[in-house]
Amino acid sequence: MFALADRVALVTGAGNGIGRAIAIAFARAGAHVAVAGRNPATLDEVAQAVQAAGRRSLALTVNVRRVPEVRGMVGRVVETLGQLDILVNNAGLTNRAPSTKLSEEDWDAVFETNLKGLFFASQEAARHMIPRRRGSIINVVSIWGLVGRAERAAYSASKGGGVQLTKTLAIEWAPHQVRVNAIAPGATRTPTREEVFGDPAFLQRLLAQYPMGRIADPEDMVGAALFLASDASAFVTGQTIVVDGGHTVQ
What is the CA 179 to chain-centroid distance, rounded? Predict the structure, then answer.
């Protein structure tokens, strides 16, 4: 039920962290995987890992804030790999600032990446999935889209928008058998966060908030992604799976 044999997946923000872990896991489950992001060097490394698993891959340098690039990305995947069965909207941007000091430029950058990019990638993917009457779209949101977080106004609002957009698209596309779900990670050890987590005092305070006594590794998101991408979740749509070691249930 969890196999992805010969399905085609597209993962954005796939150069490192959660996107990288999901892309490689999909390949090991049998999918051909296109990887998209901003850094060609890291994308090529992930594409090579996909190919090492015996699957076809495609690396695409894309800025998801630009709609023409997003549409071209999906078109390239369909043209090169033949179809699109799974989309993982993982590309994301965060910033930290008191709400009284958050600039318009920073607000726009976060929303254009986390919400605008997510919507238009989903829209373009659905245009290919709906005629085939099958497809799974997985949005990587955040627990900060479900609960409040000081000094994360733009990030929390954009991720909360992702949760609601997941529900709306799920309702609209369910008659066409295209499922839309989300994963909400808690604090996750990724290269972009390593400097923060490297502060022992900060990490100790953070760990005290997680009942399981640790923060997540990118691989902790793989199980939920495989479930949502595969036939194991054939009757699941519009849902957000929280993967946070118990943080938000306290």
Answer: 15
- Cβ atoms of 192 and 222 closer than 8 Å: no
CB 163 within 8 A of CB 145: yes
pTM comes to 0.97
Indicate whether 1 belongs to any domain.
no
Q: Give the active site residue among 120, 144, 155, 173.
A: 155
Collapse the DSSP code of 178 into the 3-class scheme (helix H, G, I; strand E, B; otherwise coil) and give the result. Answer: strand
Q: Could you tell me how many residues make up the chain?
A: 250
How far out from the chain centre does Cα 62 lie? 15
Number of domains in the chain: 1
CATH number at residue 109: 3.40.50.720
Determine, yes or no, domain membership for 3: no
For the CA atoms of the chain, what is the radius of gyration?
17
pLDDT score recorded for residue 194: 76
Q: Catalytic: 210?
A: no
| C-alpha closest to that of 62 among 75, 50, 48 | 75
